[in-house]
Each structure stands twice: as structure tokens, then as C-alpha cells.
# Entry
Amino acid sequence: MTQGKLTLANKADDSSSGEAFVAPVPPTYEEAIAGASAPCYNDEEMLTEFSWDDSNIRRVFIRKVYSILMIQLLVTFAIVALFTFCDPVKDYIQTNPGWYWASYAVFFVTYLTLSCCSAPRRRFPWNFILLAVFTLSLSYMTGMLSSFYNTKSVVMCLGITVAVCLIVTVFSFQTKLDVTSCQGVLFIFCMVMLVSGLVLAIVLPFQYVPWLDAIYAALGAILFTMFLAFDTQLLMGNKRYTMSPEEYVFATLNIYLDIVYIFSFFLQLFGTKRD
# Structure
């Protein structure tokens, strides 16, 4: 510190002007970094490279979701075909409804676990195990439901479901309409479905009303078609609400559930039950 004082004193004595020494004003942050050389890495590039909004990461995320979804749909299609075309299996599951209620309980528990608990759905391999159990239980329920309908009706509803899902998926990726901002519409639609379901639960035990059942099925198909568009745009990453690529299991779960419900409501709407 003494040496610094001497240096300042010498500079003051050696100045030709004889004016008192004035300490320079420290530079601002912008002035300090203006002439600095570039570091070995760029912060902005590193942030973009590892950001969840990066297009490459988003593309890998979408590819992963649809790969898992295709496996789920193939398993469901195989079980539905087995329960529909194989008469011994069809007779067994229809005469033993206890398996249906057991699969429903498994479906409900696994769905709540994957939806409400972030740790199990993000931790490998438990997320895939739970997703596999969920897929098998829902496939069993869908297959048993299909076994009560005519084979041609099941095939026709499968075709309608595939066509609708393809159209909605292409629309969701191409349109500029932000479906993720329409949460209020979906909520109101869900309330309408809830009230309609309660009315059906009260009316059906006394008398079957075909037109009321058809209206409920049509509303359900429309609702879950809208949910399919909503969940598809959550994957894209360029809308108001997006889904983190860490949640690929949750994204797959939602889209798979939407497709299965669309098929179930179409079967209820257009299907012909066996004699």
C-alpha cells in the first residue's frame, strides 16, 4: 500500500503540468467488455444448445413420443383383434367380467401414479414399467368392449379412428391456430360431458334411450378429438403452452388415452352389437 502511494506521488511530481493527480473514472460494464476477446465458448450458444426450446431436442422428443405411441397402439390393436376374432377368448372374457374390473382398477391406479407423481414417470425403468402395465390394462378393457360388437363395426370404427387421428395430427402441426390457449372451452365441454354422464347414469337403469346414448357418444368423440389436438400441440414447443421434453411418458400417456377414447366413442356411436 505504501509502494502504491509512492508511485502516485512520483507520477504527480513528474507531471509537466503541475496539476494535482486525479484518479480515472472506472469504465462501465459495456466499455469493459467491448474490446475483450471472445471466450473459449459462447454463453448464448451453450444456452441454445442445451435449451428445451431447441428444435433438435424438440424433434427428438416428438420422435420418441410417437415411437412409444406406435408400440402402444400395436399392442392395443393386437388385443382388440384377438378378443374380436378368436371365439374361445371372446367367450371367456365375456363370461368372466371380474377380469374387466381388475384391469379397470389397475388402469386407474397406474393412471393416477403417472399423472400425479413426477418421480415415477421420470425415473427409468419404472416409468416404462408403469406405462406398459397401463397399456395392457386399457387394452384389455378396450378389447372386451369390442368383443360385444359386430366384427365389421369394430373394423369400421378402427378405420374411422385412424383417419380422424391422422387428420387432427396434421392439422395440429400445420395450423397457426393455438389450441393450447382454449383451455376454457375444453373445461366447459368436460362439464357438459359430466352432466350428460350423470343423466345417463340415472336414465339408463330404467329405460334405454338410443338417441341420448348417441348424443353422449358424439359429444365424447368431439371432446377427445379436441384433446388430441390440444395434446399434440403441447409437443410442438411453439405455442402458448408447451410440454417439457422430460415428460415424454406423460405426453405419450395423454395422446394414447385420447386415441383409445375416440375409438371407444366411435364404437358406441356407429357400432352394431352382436345378436
